Amino acid sequence: ADGLIVIGSGQNVEGWRFFAEQAARQLPMVCWGASKENLVSIKSDNVQGTTLAIDHLLAKGCRAIAYIGPTDSEQPQFQDRVATYHAIAQKRGLPVICPPLPENAVREEQGYEAVTSLLRDGTEFDGIFAANDFIALGAMRALAEHAKIVGQDVRVIGFDGIATGAYSQPPLTTIEQDYRLAGEMLVEALIASMKGEDVVLAAVPVRLLERASA
């Protein structure tokens, strides 16, 4: 291949390590889904997305918003999201609620266990900003099992705009990335890299997709 576009999960450390080795051999490569490796990567506007989510929850009356997601991840997208959450909480005088996630668990289970721990400990919260949609789906299951009405007792917003979110109960409010534009940006960046030109990396814009969960 003259070049590669790599799309993968942030949890696949072995995979990213493999592709970092290929990039080190000067194979033109552009990635979607930023990794800890030193790779050319295009990612969404995480600061804008987190701000949209928190502002929406505040506008709906939430005053104790929990962040459910990695807090010490090496993945830049999660670093951006939790850092923005902390910055907004400090600026607005909001409590910081960041329960730990179980290690070596799929994202849905992480969301489920984190919210279960908050409910078990009696932590007061009326909103959830989940670092991705899979975590949000697990969080919503935990709320339902504890007789919390999602969208009323606790409002939930995810991130990434996965198609499955439209079919959850209730449908998931999410921060949706412009995937078509992201695809165009990946192709253009790869072609520039193959030509030896400077690769300009801009953040992919996002929008709030409001559904019943918030």
- Regions with pLDDT < 50 over 5+ consecutive residues? none
Main beta sheet: 5 strands, mixed
Spatial order of strands in the largest sheet: 4-5-6-7-8
Strands, count: 8
C-alpha-based Rg, rounded = 18 Å
Question: What is the string of SSEs from the N terminus onward?
Answer: EHEEHEHHEHEEHE
Mean pLDDT: 94
Features:
five-stranded mixed sheet; three-stranded parallel sheet; elongated
Overview of this structure, please?
By secondary structure, the protein is of the alpha/beta class. 41% of the residues lie in helices and 15% in strands. The protein has six helices and eight strands. α1 (13-24) links the parallel β1 and β2. α2 runs parallel beside α3 (76-92) and α4 packs across α5. The mean pLDDT is 94.
Summary, kept brief:
This protein is α/β, with parallel strands linked by helices and 214 residues long. The chain contains six helices and eight strands, in the order E-H-E-E-H-E-H-H-E-H-E-E-H-E. Helix content is 41%, strand content 15%.
Which SSEs are present, and which pair or pack?
Elements: E1 4-7, H1 13-24, E2 29-32, E3 41-42, H2 46-59, E4 65-68, H3 76-92, H4 107-121, E5 127-130, H5 133-145, E6 155-160, E7 173-177, H6 179-194, E8 206-209
Parallel strand pairs: 1-2, 2-3, 4-5, 5-6, 6-7
Antiparallel strand pairs: 7-8
Helix pairs in contact: 2-3, 4-5
